[in-house]
Write a structure and sequence with these properties.
This protein is α/β, with parallel strands linked by helices. It has seven helices and nine strands, in the order H-H-H-E-E-H-E-H-E-H-E-E-H-E-E-E.
Length: 234
């Protein structure tokens, strides 16, 4: 009995979470993620700090989880896949559409120089801003508003990523890409989409359709109509 009590006292939840992150990273490697900077960011950022208390034990499972305001934090694999396709450099300026929990925002903040993130849900906006500020992220800029229109005041961006689906690539987001910039977001039907990669080359936009996915919708002028349930991930 004494030995069992001693084992319980020695159990360190943060150490257990750190081990779970390492195991998640290895699982992502096996799924084909190769960008070492993306993998390092996922190992460093504590995903369990971005989910409600009741789902913390599941934080490092490779699946989406419920967060506040009826939304979700996206599956680690699909987030890693999208970030890898962005080909981020440490000097990049990134626009994120849909702050969500702020987990993807934190990953972006470790991969790029400046992150501009837009969220339409006031509940998610306030929680993510407070959380990331408390965690010491100083290169993240927050906006409460319609993300499908982007954040033109700070354009152009080297990369844009969307954490909710749209029926078509928003023209406003394409226009805010820098020459040579990359845009990655889910595009398609209400419940099933494909990850689409857009590269800007001068006045030309090259679109590449990648893997299947299923994201909640981005509501807004160039997204889904208000009648649909709102969404954001990340």
């Amino acid at each position: 009995m004494a030995a069992q009590d001693s084992d319980q006292k020695r159990w360190d939840p943060e150490r257990a979470f750190a081990q779970a992150r390492r195991e998640l990273v290895e699982a992502l490697r096996l799924q084909g993620i190769r960008d070492e900077r993306v993998l390092a960011a996922i190992e460093e950022v504590p995903r369990h700090e971005f989910v409600p208390e009741e789902v913390k034990p599941h934080a490092y499972e490779n699946r989406p989880l419920p967060i506040e305001d009826g939304q979700t934090i996206s599956q680690p694999y699909i987030v890693a896949y999208m970030l890898e396709k962005l080909e981020l450099k440490p000097t990049d300026r990134v626009l994120e559409i849909g702050t969500g929990s702020g987990w993807q925002t934190a990953l972006l903040a470790r991969l790029a120089r400046e992150v501009y993130t837009v969220e339409r849900s006031k509940v998610l906006f306030e929680k993510a801003r407070a959380r990331l500020t408390a965690m010491g992220y100083t290169n993240v800029h927050f906006k409460l508003g319609n993300g499908t229109l982007g954040w033109p005041e700070h354009a152009p961006y080297d990369a844009i990523v969307g954490s909710g689906s749209v029926p078509r690539v928003p023209p406003s987001l394409k226009a805010q890409l820098a020459d040579g910039g990359r845009l990655v977001l889910p595009v398609g039907e209400r419940h099933v989409q494909k990850i689409v990669l857009v590269r800007r080359r001068g006045d030309n936009y090259l679109e590449q359709r990648l893997v299947d996915c299923s994201f909640l919708p981005l509501i807004g002028a160039e997204g889904w109509p208000e009648a649909d349930e709102g969404a954001s991930g990340g």
